[in-house]
């Protein structure tokens, strides 16, 4: 089965990106007159001087009025001449009318100067937005706010910011407490933050939520030499892991193909295979334990009107014994790189797993007891061999496959091409898995008109299937369906289409006559 290799471009995967910003609420000094670039310095000094001169002129007017009033009284008492009287009269008129006009002008000028000074002071006290730095190193120069503070509306709470501290980022302004991480809901005060869509995060929160973690070592998957996040993923279980685990000797379950996590221990079999604890729950280890399942498979074939009359021995063996038997077999096709079942037609002596001793709860390996078994040729098939230690559904699918080999030989089918023979055998294995997964009773596919003279012995592995065992059955079906080998994979797909289109019996009759699947 082909594993997928995934590449992610850091946190920019699927539109994620980084932004930097400066938060101006960190004890930054306000902008002074000397730092202002929006006004000319001479104009500011001129406005201030004008304001001071008006104040000074106002004080002088009051002093002149008092001194002239005293002088006019002395002149009126001392001088009685007509000329002095006319002069004194003109001074009174000046004091009566002229100050009123001057006072109006001065007040208007003062009010205008105060408004000008207030506007200048307000514009100088408004803080410009912070600079926005991007990962590429480009810097956007700051610009000054010349509009009143009431125009600053927080993008978080949608209320007025006023003269308080604020942040400017993402083309909006925010209260410092309103710009929060979407994961932890705490304010973001860092100069850098990450985004996913329109959501912003602390860089650490983004990493925890979006950066892939290895399911084996439970660490963040590191980047490769190109700066990309590269990891492997199982096409069925979706288990993600670092590519280095394929080279560091990390064990893989021989049945479900999942890698062993660091916090879990897989069971070791005598022939070096590793078995996960979930697969161990339904594993069939010795020949005696497998006999009830063998009986179910025979009933399954009988329900398809394909009864096998001969009593064919079924033996569970180790990997070495299976390989030795395969070398001594002249006929048959074998699924490399590992064969887990074999239909024999030659006389041989094989070593079978007769039984296993009881292991403690903390046992990390399975000990087995073997014995030699001499096969004699009574028909075209001498025995069916199955690798021991496999889960019940996997053992059953292999047994259904090998039983089809036996049925073809016993029914006198000619030597078939590998893609035809292995393909139709995989079709029967797939059909049995379907019957086990989707049947309400588990094994009602057998015919009620069974002519067997003996009742099946009780099975320690048969019963209510767990959720994992059902998923495991789907995985074994997925293995058959996605096999890329010409014989087992392509042969199954062509044969399955023929069975779906014409039915099993018509397909078998066509194979007998032509040696090919019907098109």
Automatic annotation (TrEMBL):
Species, as recorded: Populus euphratica
Transmembrane segments: none
GO molecular function annotation: catalytic activity, acting on a protein; hydrolase activity; metal ion binding; ubiquitin binding
Domain of life: Eukaryota
Pfam families: DA1-like, LIM, UIM_2
Protein name: Protein DA1-related 1 isoform X2
InterPro entries: DA1-like, DA1-like_dom, UIM_dom, Znf_LIM
Keywords recorded for this protein, A-Z: LIM domain, Metal-binding, Repeat, Ubl conjugation, Zinc
Annotated ranges, domain LIM zinc-binding: 152-212
GO biological process: regulation of DNA endoreduplication
Sequence segments annotated as region (Disordered): 1-40, 56-104, 443-467
Amino acid composition bias (Basic and acidic residues), ranges on this chain: 20-40, 74-99
């Amino acid at each position: 089965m082909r594993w997928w290799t995934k590449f992610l471009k850091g946190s920019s995967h699927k539109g994620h990106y980084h932004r930097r910003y400066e938060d101006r609420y960190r004890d930054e000094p306000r902008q002074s007159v000397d730092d202002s670039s929006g006004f000319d310095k001479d104009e500011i000094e001129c406005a201030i001087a004008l304001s001071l001169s008006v104040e000074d002129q106002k004080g002088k007017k009051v002093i002149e009025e008092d001194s002239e009033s005293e002088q006019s009284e002395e002149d009126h008492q001392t001088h009685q001449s007509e000329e002095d009287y006319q002069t004194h009269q003109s001074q009174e008129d000046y004091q009566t009318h002229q100050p009123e006009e001057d006072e109006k002008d001065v007040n208007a000028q003062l009010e205008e100067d105060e408004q000008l000074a207030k506007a200048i002071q307000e514009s100088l006290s408004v803080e410009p937005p912070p600079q926005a730095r991007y990962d590429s190193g480009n810097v956007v120069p700051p610009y000054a706010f010349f509009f009143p503070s009431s125009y600053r509306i927080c993008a978080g709470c949608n209320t007025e910011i006023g003269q308080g501290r604020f942040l400017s980022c993402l083309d909006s302004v925010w209260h410092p407490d309103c710009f929060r991480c979407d994961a932890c809901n705490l304010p973001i005060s860092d100069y850098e933050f990450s985004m996913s869509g329109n959501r912003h995060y602390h860089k650490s929160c983004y990493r925890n939520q979006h950066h892939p973690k290895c399911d084996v070592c439970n660490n963040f998957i590191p980047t490769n030499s190109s700066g990309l996040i590269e990891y492997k993923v199982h096409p069925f279980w979706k288990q993600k892991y670092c590519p280095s685990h394929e080279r560091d000797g990390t064990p893989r379950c021989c049945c479900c193909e999942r890698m062993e996590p660091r916090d879990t221990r897989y069971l070791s079999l005598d022939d070096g295979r590793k078995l996960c604890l979930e697969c161990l729950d339904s594993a069939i280890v010795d020949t005696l334990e497998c006999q009830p399942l063998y009986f179910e498979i025979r009933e399954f074939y009988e329900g398809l009107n394909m009864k096998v009359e001969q009593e064919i021995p079924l033996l569970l063996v180790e990997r070495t014994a299976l390989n030795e038997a395969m070398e001594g077999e002249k006929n048959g096709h074998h699924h490399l790189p590992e064969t887990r079942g074999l239909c024999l037609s030659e006389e041989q002596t094989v070593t079978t797993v007769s039984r296993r001793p009881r292991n403690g709860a903390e046992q990390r390996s399975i000990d087995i007891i073997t014995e030699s078994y001499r096969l004699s040729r009574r028909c075209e098939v001498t025995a069916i061999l199955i690798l021991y230690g496999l889960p019940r559904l996997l053992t059953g699918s292999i047994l259904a496959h090998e039983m089809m080999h036996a049925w073809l030989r016993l029914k006198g089918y000619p030597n078939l091409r590998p893609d035809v023979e292995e393909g139709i055998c995989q079709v029967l294995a797939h059909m049995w898995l379907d019957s086990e997964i989707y049947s309400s009773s588990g094994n009602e596919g057998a015919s009620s008109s069974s002519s067997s003279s003996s009742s099946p012995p009780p099975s320690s592995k048969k019963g209510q299937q767990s959720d994992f065992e059902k998923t495991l059955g789907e995985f074994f079906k997925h293995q058959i369906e996605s096999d890329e080998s010409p014989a087992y994979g392509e042969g199954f797909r062509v044969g399955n289409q023929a069975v779906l289109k014409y039915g099993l019996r018509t397909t078998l009759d066509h194979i007998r006559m032509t040696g090919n699947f019907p098109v």
